[in-house]
User: Fold these one by one.
Assistant:
Number 1:
Amino acid sequence: MKTFSFDIETIPGIVPEEIINYRKTSVISRMRKGTVKEKALLKALQDKDVVLLEIADKVRIEVIEEYHEKLTQVSVGNALDKRFCETIAFSFHNGDESFSFVNTSEQLILENLIDHMLNKDIRRLVTWNGERFDLPVIKFRSIIHKKLGLVKAFENKEHKDIFWTFNNPYSRMDEKIGFGENGWINLHQACLLLNIPHNLHVKDKNMAKLVEIDDLETIKAICESDAVATWELWNRTSI
């Protein structure tokens, strides 16, 4: 059986108002308890009314999260978003073969994903940040769509998240370099570090906008590029 890299693409779903309010309160509370930089940022956001954001429509709380994460390198409220992200694409890659699927029907996405997980010769999945994003999304969306067989299929596969190869707060080396701005990198930065081609050609990665204009080919290309990059990183760093 084979090892495949795996990646999904999502768009934000509609988040209940009580969740939005909780997120606002939680992020603001963390900022108030934070550093001088964070407090200054909070004041700037409040002066522009960005904290309020008026986000009863599509989830826009990531604006606050992005600012907060840049300062602290800690993602806030990880467990909340994943219930509401709608999966629109997935991609597998192992150097010799690739298979991808993109569709605006999440039901079809999950059905095709089940088919691939059960009928392809997959022993191990390699992801970038899969433990914190891809797999939780699959779990929550499978529950919502009553596709619990998909959860079981993922449980039966080995999994390696190479995000932790580059970002490990528990390693002595990361501890020495501060594990903050000095050590934390994303997928694209890891590719730049090892001179691995990534999706630089894609200028607009706003998935919701791409869905709106029916540009599914670009979504597929982004997903495939991430899966290929993850595979290359795994090959370069696996022992």
Number 2:
Amino acid sequence: MEKEPLTSSRSTSEQTRKHVILCAQTAAEHRGYDILVLDVRRLTDITDYLLIATGTSRRQIHTMADEIDRLMEEQGEYKLGIEGYDESRWVLIDYGDFVVHLFDLQTRKYYDLESLWGDATRIEWDEQQQQFQGRRK
């Protein structure tokens, strides 16, 4: 009896990429800025992608986190954990294959994940992303 082939990791990776891009678009729709999607697959086995975004207030960071989580649940993607929601200086939402980092400006500058993951490949997630770049000075 012939076995059916297992689902390739490529299709899983494509689905993960689609989900992280949807999260980036959702952050942008809710006024997040300086939004980066990083492909870290060749750098770590912990996760495949990181999304990094900045919000201007606790309420906005909450809204981004809530809307991202709502959208992912609609896609059948459920968070494994969330940290920092009450303080809202750095909200981390772990979906396993990707991790969402939502920062206030001061905390993002302090931790500087872009430099920490400087060897990661940046994913072009939206043609319009340039309008959201450069606000972080």
Number 3:
Amino acid sequence: MILQRFYWNCIRRRRFLNNISISIMMNEREHKMSHNDMKNKSLREIFSYFMVSFSQTFVEFGAFALLQILALPAPVPSAGSVFVSGCWNYMLNRNITFKSSANYARSITLFVLLYCWNFVYLNLMLSVLSWDPMLIKLFTMGCQGVWGFLACKFIIFR
């Protein structure tokens, strides 16, 4: 009786330990897969973000050029082009790049704050630098692309 109980306890322990080791192995595989998936997701997001930004460049330059033709003061074409391209960027990045289900009010508010900063930065550069306005626009758009991705990924659409 005692030997039989000892035997069954050993078998139960062995099964228990086997189940634990199998579970640990599965978790390690899942962790490795999730790490690779996260890496692939991040690369896809970077590529998608910069493709959206690339398309946004044409939208923003087009709006900026059209509004400049009307001979409006420099901040007006700048504001108009930022608004049009901002709507374009928000919708594509929210729905395609980051596939976000974050709170609309929160994400729109943060996105608007980001674009307000971008607008202030652009107009500051327009008033400080004595370059051609299109070159200033190109330079500021490059800066905005870098900090925009980081803000969208880690703050706005998380």
Number 4:
Amino acid sequence: MRRRLEIARNAAPDLVFKAILETGALSDTNLIRAASHEALLGGAHFIKTSTGKGHEGATLDAAEIMIDEIIATGGAAGLKPSGGISTPAFAQAFLDIFETRLGKADPTRFRIGASSLLSHLLANPGCETSSSEDATAY
């Protein structure tokens, strides 16, 4: 993976590259760690948990491992949790993990793939993240 990313980065140095790891398809945490590490060393600007199609989507555990690798490789890359993020509480949990470990989130370092969340928000205007929603259940 690293070499392919390096080739793509060299061919299009002005583009932002995102590596989608499909963490739900990886059978253990060491594979998530290794895939994150290789993608980051290859020059990915973002590492993304999943497409949300066909496998388990984003998990908080996978995001924490990915953040560990972002830190281990210098902390410059971003995180994009995606897949199955359908409530404000779950989205907030990813943001909280990111900001606790890497500081204030901004679009150059943190993005969220949340088409399910958008559907939820559009169906429930005025809804907010509340402490009564338990994001740890995800």
